[in-house]
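Good morning C.,

I know you're traveling, so I'll keep this short. The sequence:
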Amino acid sequence: MKKIVYLFLITICFASALFFYSNKVGLADSGVGQLNRFANVLNKKDISITSWNLYAREAKIDTSVAKVVGKYKNNLKDFKWTVNKEQSKIIGLKQHTFVTERVVVTSTSDNSSYVIYELNGTKWDQQTENETKMILKNSLENIFSKEPTFFTCIKGTMGGKLEGVLQGIKNDFLETFKAKKIEEIKEGAFVSVSAYTEQWNDALVANGKKINLQIAIRENKVDESKTIIIGTPIITVEY
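The tokens, ready to paste straight into the viewer:
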């Protein structure tokens, strides 16, 4: 079966079918509240969290990559920087106790640039939440000149003996978030659904319909375990 991938940069930067409408999350929250919401849901369903991602992005910057990175190197002195010439990217990386911090500056054809900021980790608990808040407080103002848009994503696994078929799990999550299904993909031991919930404001509009929640569930046929990924407004990792 072919891998199903949501490419963050393509979806957000170039897909003309998707447009933002949003009351953006304030810097005080910065997606942390949404990660807490997702983690609480997974924990209550006895699903073990295996990874999470938080992305931030603002509009294209009318400045070259070299100038942007020069500023970042001055403000983010503990980062290690590498150059990917093939993809016209410069990547900054810093490892914290529980969280990995990453900045990707990409050049565009008109000598402008855009910046993707990412935090990720392998568990979400009080220690990780506290460290994430501290990192965001220290870094966001050094990276973005305006308030960015945030995307959050969390992944977990559950044993095969705990729950039923994929459609039942999917429907359970939709009910939990009081979400209305907009689009769905079903392929063998995999199901993915795009939905809309009024429980939070941020959303994308695709084909005239609002989307602010995606859920993907894949079953391992060997041990019948399930991998669940939840993202808002869309899933931003490969699954």
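Safe travels,
E.
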